Amino acid sequence: MCPTLAPDQHYDVYFLAEDAAAAADWAFANNMQPTVTHTTLYTGDFAPPAFVRVVRAEPTSPTALEIVAALDEPGMVYWALLPVAAVAPDAASLRAASSLHGVGVGLDSSPAAAIAGDDSDDSSSSRCRRALYGEMQVPTAQRDVRVAVSGVCDGDHYRCVAVRPYGTG
Predict the structure, then answer these.
(1) Burial class (CB in 10 A: 0-12, 13-18, 19+), 75
(2) Where are the domains of the chain?
(3) Which of 36, 38, 44, 119 holds its CA 20 to 30 A away from the CA of 96?
(4) 121-162: pLDDT as tens digits
(5) What's the predicted TM-score (pTM) here?
């Protein structure tokens, strides 16, 4: 019986073939391969990363904040900063909208706006954003990663939604 293999591991596997006649103790007892065959097996990383702490959004000024996240393994975090009354996107929609903007903050309002509706406030001379989307790379497990977000509307209330790849929130 094989032992349980750990995910995301490399294993060396060795093989040796012997004739069935040798196994039955027939006259061909030495009828086996002269050398051992070797291959490497990678079990793959099939488990999605998990948040090790609650994702936080920390204000740094009236129109800026930092999003802080940590995962149990290196990966990506996709996030949205939405008005409190907005409907939270599902994981696939958030990933699609966030990925359009790359690492950090994207202020393009085209496809991402379909999730939260109109995301701009044209009444402000500084053009604050009603909805912001982005992704952040987490290169090291168990360590906080921060991304600066600017362009939020002074005095508005936001909700931060974040998902890890393949996750639900």
Answers:
(1) buried
(2) 10-42, 56-163
(3) 44
(4) 444 434 566 778 888 888 888 888 888 887 777 777 777 877
(5) 0.62
